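>> received
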Amino acid sequence: MGRTAESDGGGGAGCAGGLRERPGPGRDVVVIGGGVAGTSCVLHLVRELLDAPGRGGGGGRPGPPRGGRIRSVLLVDPNPPGWGLAFGDRDPLLLCNTAAEINSLLADEPGDFVGHLREQGLEVGPLDCVPRARMAAYCHDRFDRSRARARELGVEVRHVRGAAESVTAGPAGHRVRLADGRELRADEVVVATGVHRPRVPDGFAAFQDHPRYLDSPYPAARIRERLPAGSNVLVLGSHQSAIDAALLLCRDGHRATLTSPSGLLPAVRVSLAAPVRAFPPLERLARLDPADPLLEERVLRCAVESVRLLSRVPLRRQTSRAADPLQRLREEAALVEEGAVWWPGIMVALMDALIALAPSLPPGRMAALQARFAPLTGRYVTAMTSRNARRLLAHAGSGALRLAGSYPAAVAFEDGAWRVERPGAAPERFDYAVNATGFLLPTLCWNHDGTALYLDAPPGAGWAVDRLEADLRVRRGPGAAPERIWVVGVGTHVRVPFANLLGNVVRQAHQVARELAGAEIPV
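>> returned
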């Protein structure tokens, strides 16, 4: 039998005792994950409860769902609300890649994040990219405010410090088991966990525990603490995580060499911002035939037509065709600074259109579509800010940063250093290797008999949750009844692409909160 898990309102270590049922009527909701997805769920749920009939709002919605009113909402995460992997790094060099105007936690208040920053005395424009820690502080502030507002309703909102491992379903409710053996009882569970397991780069599977290998550049403090001054570092990757790693290393006096199979750096833009207008060509995506063998070409045509609504300048003149990655970076940064780049204006609208299209596609078709556009996605959807582009170019100009022409064919650790062999190049030696290839998407798995849902691979045989319906509820298999377990955020990648797009995450959180707070929940 597990122990009950509790914490104080501020997310302290809390106390533990024997597992016990809470007396009295009401439903207990557990939200697993304290990042953007989990925090947004809590915010929307409290707002829905405040707006319920009898609270002055209501909007004519039905009363509390079967099982009674919500009496508690527990947010489970080992870190304070907001301060997880995505935004919880206090290093000011690490910026959000999205504009402040699209970073709101509230689906119906897009300006909430900008308003929060201005409340803090910061002069921030809607298109500005702020340090990620600002987003973490915003999440934490809004969680604290929601907790106080919930108290007015007699609803307990608390942060439980711990890492959830599994959810066991039963007729008397669910048990959320934490890594330390404690358990939480829940009537409903929302899984809102993000990424946490780094990818394993080619050639380095045998070195995951090597003291001269860092499995990710986060938190930034690890680089400062573990690397001696002036280290020569091989950075594995060339996309957003690798850009972060290069900026951190070069700032702190190290030399960085970036390498990846593609050798491509992301394109350059000011920021990922809200759509600047409506795009009828993208609205046509929802009417495309999912079985059309030319679907990929039609999607691409809709995207190109949308860019043309912003400018008649051909796309080939909005990007660089230079073969050398640094020259391409230099030319694309200049284009952004000249105001000669319009394609970024469609990106959020394009991702939203593909998110809406995905559920209508037969199994495997969206994966094929994503594979077809992977090179474009890698460069343009995850484009870097022009500010970071200039920083990279400055480090390259100083000799602190370079890009390898090819990916290592052989790697060994010999005589106190990494020995790296690349095609067409002499062997090189590096003091440290930093993996910056990104993170694996989370996969929910049932255990062998379907009695427990694991947030990672379960012990022994089991099967993965590979599909979610529109209600975002977990099922044990096709045609099975939905469990009282919802998924929000990155975990919905089995249903939609770009599952980590913040606007998509917030919409999902709002949807789930409305169902939990004000509607009958089918069983």
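>> The longest strand covers residues 70-77.
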